[in-house]
Amino acid sequence: MVGAGPAGLTAAQALAARGIPVLLAEQGPVVGGWAACYACKAATDCNLCGVCLSARVSRTMQPGAGVTLKVDAHVLGIEGGPGSFAVRLAHRPRGVDVSRCTGCGRCAELCPVAAIAQPHPQALPMAYLLDQEACLRARGEECVICREACPFGAVLLDDTPSEELVQADVVVLATGFEPYPAARKGQLGYGRLPGVITTMDLERGLWQHGPEYLSRLLPGSRRVAFVHCVGSRDLAAGRGWCSQVCCPTALRLAGRMVRELPGLEATLFFIDLQRCAPGIARLFDDLPPEIHLVRGIPGDVLSEPGGLLLTFEDVATATRRQELFDLVVLAVGMDSPGAAAGMPAAAEGFLCDLPAGVVAAGACGGPVSIPEAVGEGLRAAGAALRVLESLS
Amino acid sequence: MNGYGTALAVCTCGGTLCGRLDVERIVAAPGFASALVIHDLCLPAGSARVASWLRETAADSLVVAACGVPAAVQAVVEVSRAAGVAEHRTSLVDLREGCAWVHTQADQATAKALRMVASAAAGVRESTPPVPDVEVRPSGRVLVVGTGPGSLAAAARLKDLGCEAVLISGTLERFEGQAGEFKARIRTDQGVECHAVGAVIAAGDAPARMPAVQAGQRVAFLLEGDPWPSVTESTLSAALHLARDCGCRVLVLFRDMGVAGRGLEELYREARGSGVTFVRMEEGSLRIVEAGGEWVVTLEVPGLGSVTETVDVLVSGATDALQGTRGLAEVLGVAPRKGGWAPRERALLEPVATERNGVFLIGSARGPYTTDQAVRQGEAAAMAALSVAAPGVIAVSARASVDVERCAFCLTCLRVCPHQAVTTALGQTMRVLPAACQGCGVCAAACPAGAIQITESPNRRLLAEMDALMNGPPLGGRPTVVFACANSAVPALQALGRLRLSYPAQVLVVPVPCLGRLEAVHCVRPLAAGARRVLLCGCYDRSCEHLVGPATARRVVERASALAGTLGLDPGAIHVASLAPVDWHKLGQILGVSCDDGDRNGGEASKVTAHATA
Ligand SMILES: Cc1cc2nc3c(=O)[nH]c(=O)nc-3n(C[C@H](O)[C@H](O)[C@H](O)COP(=O)(O)OP(=O)(O)OC[C@H]3O[C@@H](n4cnc5c(N)ncnc54)[C@H](O)[C@@H]3O)c2cc1C
Ligand code: SF4
Ligand code: SF4
Ligand code: SF4
Ligand code: SF4
After folding, report:
1. Ligand minimally distant from the alpha carbon of residue A94
2. pTM above threshold 0.80
3. Which end of chain A is more exposed for a tag (fewer CB within 10 A), N or C?
């Protein structure tokens, strides 16, 4: 099983529940995929963003439940066929022994340069991470403070990359997606203009800092614009698909923000508003008056003395309009991360036409929401079982 | 049975808890037969040491004060198993995230720790042995309702996985029983059929047929409603076919094009490129007049003025996709949701489950899904159904049980159970179906006779734990009691701990499976014992897996507040709050802690999901 996002975790647990031993390799330090760092988007009531679901899928990933979890393990390549796959894993040095670290935090208390820390407060595994670049040893100093401090002998200061070959009968790829690199749309100012962020930044900012994230970002910001379809439905950008999750995500994020931050007004700029995801129809029916909908997508964002100036064609009135905002949120689409583990991919980069015995699950096969990724995990588990049955 | 008493093991987490708590005082807590300090419960060496010590003490119950990490939970299970202590007579206290890490004053933290340990001990003393396992023997048959692509995909996958798909042609009339052993009655043209099945996958029927159009005619499709992907799929494939293959002149009038489904944007592009004319309607600008078998469609297009088209056939796209399944949902015992689709919208029940274990809804029975989505859901549901319906023997232990001596036969439990887990029949007693029950406790709280007990936390245990928590060494102020829902508040509390955000030691936490577990007495009792506030922290209405938790809690709080008033206690001291498991900020707000402490909050977040290149 490659990748421990909602899809991979679900597939691993479903197979383990049928008595199949599973090795789950995740390149990152913790499980959960992108969704592990998303914010709750409830306003007065839950808006069914699905983050609770992915949080539960991660939480139920208990040790000893038939799944061997390897974090910091990047899958480089897969060779062989059904019943005899050889999977090449590259271990990234974490600097901490996952099987020994209890998360006690003593190392982090004592490290003079904060180079060792927990991944995040709901991380699984909760084992700490050593940032080898920030560590004093990277500057040639002989610091061993954390290693000495650790009551469990878990700090591995000289951790080095290594490779490993594992055998498998069937391979499930759940390698997920990449958010569209918004900086590529230079005219929208991402990475250039302060006050232009992406929905991914907003998800993670709200998750990490709570509602205060906005005032941290831009004190006193009141007018927020969401620009839809950034890097989706855009043949010129080489992305001819609808990413499906960005409309509902923008709506839900706007819903939460206008509720929590009095005085905030949000304007959504879109061409077609996708509002059929679970919970969205209801949110749309009782749209708070602080959320404004404009059909039309701004071509550029300019920094003006009064804020960020958006120029757009308002489809409803067929007029060219301009409006000032304090914050512009780009609703970035879901991109494929490119050929995962050396597997064939379609022109858009999403996996397709996989060799026999290799099954794809989740966003690596095309845009999906969290609930859909969980469904994909179940589905892939079924497909993998079928392959296993044909082997025996 | 209590001959050997309760043993206490305290883990210091490598000594790191020692400065924050007076561990000496905690191991000397009164009421324990023996006590041990260890430093590494979650590592193999530590748990082995606890196991051998426990065997020597010959205690019949065990309290471990450590942390809440999965490895510790696992260690307690293994230790008790190795030493022959029954699992229900063990209790794990989260001393680390729940106390040491979140309170700054060691004396107050220690006082709270002593209360937590005493509470756990009181709990194991009042614990009841688990209800004996019941064997469910699914036959491997799964009922598949519907003739659409989702049903067919589910049936095919079920067959691959060694199950038998029972496809019906008729109306499902009655459905009863529990996961693994449902009984379904179906009315067909020939009469009535009965099937014993382990699960049911219900989907809608095949998508709408092509409208009756002759070659060369002029056709307009009118898409007025919500931009349903299913409507886009059926309309655009029909439009494309008519324009490309039948020489029709095709007009599609729409507001939002629903392209949130795999391949829909591509289909939309193809239709535009193949001669289908798309015109976007704006509010109130469309006029349709019928004249001599033709339709004159007039549209005000901003910037272009008015456009008029005369067509032979006018197809309304929305109507053929509305296949509400209210009736089906009712027969299956799951609540219909807005628009007639089932099941009720619940974050934790997506993408194929319902509140009733073993009942799966997919495709157009669930929402306006495309063929591709229905097929994917069908295959997912087949795998999910396997866990309850695969042939074999499944041992399940009831998470709730009815004391038939006390039962007044009022049928309250039957009515309130959100998971269709209570049943009875003529001349029989009330019974909890173990494979259906999710242990939420809603029935126990609602039963006027107090006849239902939740196995894991029977009422006597819960009250004993609460009482021990309320009475103990001084905490430096009047306590606030927080009832914490296992799905939301408990994980959020743990996050506060991991962030070392401090809140007052007067905050005492009582975990519950669902807020629906609580009665008015649970809320008033702490007030009577001196609590300043009582908070019920759980999910939102639509994130509650047990459907009714928050709503029930609001009613209970109303009743409890009135009761508090009549008892001369503060009627404004009891509150309900909703939060998500990932929203520790909101919990912090509720407890009066500022969570925004700069970058310590997941300061490493940027690295966590960064797909760094190898
Ligand atoms: C801005 C934004 C906001 C969103 N918000 C929502 C929302 O509110 N609700 C919702 O339902 N959906 C939302 N989504 C969609 C959601 O993120 C996806 O549905 C979900 O993350 C897909 O899960 P996955 O398991 O398929 O992939 P991922 O979450 O991407 O997980 C894949 C995992 O595989 C690992 N991996 C990749 N390659 C390898 C390799 N070679 N070896 C080992 N491991 C590997 C990765 O590290 C990662 O952990 C949003 C998407 C975006 C872009
Ligand atoms: S909005 Fe999302 S995270 Fe918040 S409660 Fe609902 S599903 Fe959970
Ligand atoms: S001191 Fe050791 S056990 Fe504690 S957090 Fe650091 S590495 Fe983990
Ligand atoms: S979901 Fe909305 S924002 Fe995202 S690509 Fe589709 S239409 Fe654009
Ligand atoms: S505990 Fe919950 S699921 Fe079980 S019978 Fe009672 S109300 Fe139903």
Report:
1. 3
2. yes
3. C
